[in-house]
Amino acid sequence: MCYNRAASATLGTALQTLRVSTVLEERYGTMPHQLVEILTPLLGQQPMPYSVSALFRLLPFLVVVVLIVLGLVWAQRSVLRRTAGFQQVAARLGFFYVEPGEGLLVEDLAGFQLVAQGKDGRISNMLQGKSPLADVAVFDYSYVTGAGKRAQTHRQSVICFQSKASSWPAFALRPAGPFHRFTEGVGYRQLDRTVIPLLPESHVLCGDDEAAVLALFGVMQWKAITSQARVSLEARGGRFLYYRQRQRIKPDQLEQFLSEGLEMFAMFEKSADGNLGPH
Question: Quick check: 183 pLDDT over 70?
Fold first, then answer.
């Protein structure tokens, strides 16, 4: 009889342990094992000091999670601050702030170097307005290069002028470096530097019609290009782009950026009309 009672007690303990283990598996089977170790004492299966030890082992994981959350919060607040800054500039200049997906689209810029590089091109923070010579859009443009752990997002501020009268042959002028290879790869070819004596060593010029492109550049244009570090210019049809590769402009510098872009655009507007001046 005593043996039967002892066996029954042992069997009951085993069944209770099995039930608790089953509950743990059902409730916490998908959790990290450190969390299971912490929760187990709450069901009476481990002493509490062991859960404290497990908590310390989990601490690096918790720190990483907190840092990720803080990074996401900071990034979102930074996006909102930049958007608010653009909206304030728009109100001051009499421009309109355009919501994402409206106004100028990436597809509208097909054929330009800006959208030919990388993938996942996106336009954001767009302001639209008018000048006496053109309709104007200024915006942030981002694209991604690489994949997986090597993926990088590149951002720049861009001004797009839609001329009311002129049309340009397709060309792209940008700082020399690895990016000019991409220029050649999408329908342009690099123009011979030996026939462009004023072309700065810091830049390359590409186009699809050498004679027509070179006819746009005179002393005045080259002087302005040389004075503006890392400037990139593109034109095709009635559109003219002005930007600095992989450089975003702060909202409080946006008016100066627009002023520089308008000055450059006006020079090429004159050259498109044949008022080039001295070469």
Answer: no
pLDDT tens, 98-128? 988 787 889 999 889 899 888 999 999 999 9
- The pTM of this model reads 0.72
Q: How far apart are CA 146 and CA 121, in angstroms?
A: 13
Pair of tokens at residue 141: 């443009």
Tell me what the mean pLDDT of segment 240-266 comes to. Answer: 94
Asked if 93 contacts 129 with a C-beta cutoff of 8 angstroms, the reply is: yes
Q: What angle do CA 84, 86, 91 make, to 5 degrees?
A: 95
User: Residue 139: beta bridge partners?
Assistant: 158
CA dist 270 and 219 (Å) reads: 13
Is 235 within 8 Å of 160 (Cβ atoms)? no
In this predicted model, what pLDDT tens digit does every residue of 84-98 receive, in sequence order? 999 999 999 999 999
Nearest Cα to Cα of residue 256 among 175, 138, 134: 138
**Which residues are CB-neighbours of 151 under 8 A, at least 6 positions away?**
144, 145
SS3 per-residue string spanning 187-256: CCEECCHHHCCCCCCCEEEEECCHHHHHCCCCHHHHHHHHHCCCEEEEEEECEEEEEECCCCCCHHHHHH
Q: How far apart are CA 109 and CA 49, in angstroms?
A: 64
